[in-house]
Amino acid sequence: MADQRILNSEKSERVLESLVERGSVVLITGEQTREKYNFVKNFIFKLVLNRSTNLELSKEILIRRIEDQSFPDFYEFSDRQIAIGSQDKAAYGTVRHLLKHMLPYSPRETKTRFILFPDAARIRDEAESALLKSLEEPPPSTVFILMVEDEQMLKETIVSRSVQIRLVTAPVDHLISSDQWERFWYLSGISDHSLFRLMSEKKWLQVLRTEFDTLEFDAQDFPVFDKLGGSYMNKYFKQENADVQNEILALSLLPLLFSVRDALTEGMLPTIGPLRLPWKDESKLMLMASCFEAVVIQLRQKIFGSRSASLPAVYYNFLARLFPLWNSA
Q: Which of 128, 179, 201, 325 could form a disulfide with 123 if both were Cys (CB 3.0 to 4.6 A apart)?
């Protein structure tokens, strides 16, 4: 089991540094937050500077060179999707680019090279398979740092070859907003999701708030659901790939799932969902909760290990099952 540490500068950095000394694959589990990402990246920068053989290298120069992809001893993958890349001309940020253009060579400006995966769960199956040999037998003076919410999201062959630490953020109850939607994003953990910033930038959070706050909880609501998975999704996220669209729709249904659960546990547990449902029939609420849980799982499933589920097929099948429950509850 991974050692668990509260995120703070001194103690967590000391433990992380000891793990880097012990192994070439460091697995950091726990809730994925922007605070934790910044902490880990700054930690890596410190190690790079401490181990640098370039006396003119400063943090400012390091950051600038990383941004223009001219620093040879640090490689960071995307936190969205990590592909294997073309065999002929692999682009930067793909696994084949790393394997061809960095790993065969020794570090040039530091004693240790660092490879960061901000969300290792985003590694596609074929890319993960291509990486396995390098993770099983890492090149000399190379450290892989993989961040993931839960180790079960990675292949056992990767997990078994890693040294692990679970980093968690200390709760800050006094910072929780009194606004029911802001409170929900925080308590549900959605505000720490890698796509939350994109949803915020695209004004999608406001769309959800506006549409859900005006629900009448009868059959007249269904055009809203149809738009969320259809015209709205196409309008706001047309440029995003299927993985991102499916995940955003899954996250968008969680306010309703949590609100249904609140209705089922009313008077027994604190409420989390942003909506107060008028229904009291426990059996129908349980069916509705199962319906929401199932579609969230299905939207996140992979077909044949790597292909995204078909959003229209999954979502409109869900609406067909939800409609009679919603209309008669």
A: 128
